[in-house]
Amino acid sequence: EIKEIAKDNFGLNPNFISAEHIRAPRERSYDLIDFDFDDSSQPFILYVEKNLLKSKSTSLYRFFKLNLSLYRLSKNNQLQIKIKFKPRDSFFIRKFFYRFLGFTILPTAAPAQVFANHKNCMSVMGFSSSAMAEKYNKKVYCFGSIKESFNSSVYANINSLKQRSKGNHVVFLETLQELENLSIVDEVIS
User: Fold this and answer.
1) Which site among 31, 50, 56, 83 is 20 to 30 Å from 153 CA-CA?
2) Contacts of the segment 70-74: beta carbons below 8 A, 24+ positions apart
3) DSSP 8-state symbol, 84
4) Which of 57, 109, 55, 100 is nearest to 81 (CA)?
5) Where do runs of H (alpha helix) occur along 6-150?
6) pLDDT range class, residue 13, cuts 50, 70, 90
7) How far is CA 96 from CA 47, 48, 158, in A?
8) What is the pTM of this model?
9) Element (H, E) at 160
């Protein structure tokens, strides 16, 4: 069923969408939305962030190591990392930490899928968000499967993502070194 949807219903600032209305199925067809946001003209990696410290999935030390690996990935690929926080998450301190690393913070109101489907999004990565289980025409990297970075209590989340993402291009990483050495530009799916 396709309906005319007011463009502010997707959580985006209506000024960023060029269409007056969006014709989209009621299902989640985020790929039908073409929009621009700050610095969206450059290729980027979408990082779907989860509050790993609050959930006690990792220690502060391992959190820093993980983000240092993400920083190196960004530099090795010459791609900016754009972070999408959950709208209901409080991320005040983490926002400054990520900005210190040179990452960009995306608007929280829009769903992560909208950014993941953007034409300049080269890849999606994160811990185990449901947005990572969607089918994109690009690789999705799960770093929640890196055993050296997370407590064993997270395995249920990772197994759930594996089940939800069957048939999609989700890669479950095993080491921080593997994360740092990814060649994102070479792995874009056509």
Assistant:
1) 83
2) 70/101, 70/103, 70/125, 70/179, 71/101, 71/102, 72/180, 73/45, 73/179, 73/180, 73/182, 73/184, 74/45, 74/102, 74/103
3) E
4) 100
5) 60-77, 92-100, 112-116
6) low
7) 16, 17, 28
8) 0.78
9) helix 155-164
In angstroms, the CA 64 to CA 183 distance is 22
Query: Residues with Cβ < 8 Å from 37, sequence gap 6 or more?
Result: 16, 106, 107, 115
The pLDDT of residue 14 is above 80: no
Whether 45 and 35 have beta carbons less than 8 Å apart is answered as: no
Alpha-carbon distance of 154 to 138, in angstroms, equals 25
The first and second tokens of residue 16, run together, are 């960023």
Which residue carries 């900016």 as its tokens?
80
Span 110-136, pLDDT tens digits? 788 888 888 889 999 998 888 888 888
Residue type at 155 in one-letter notation:
Y
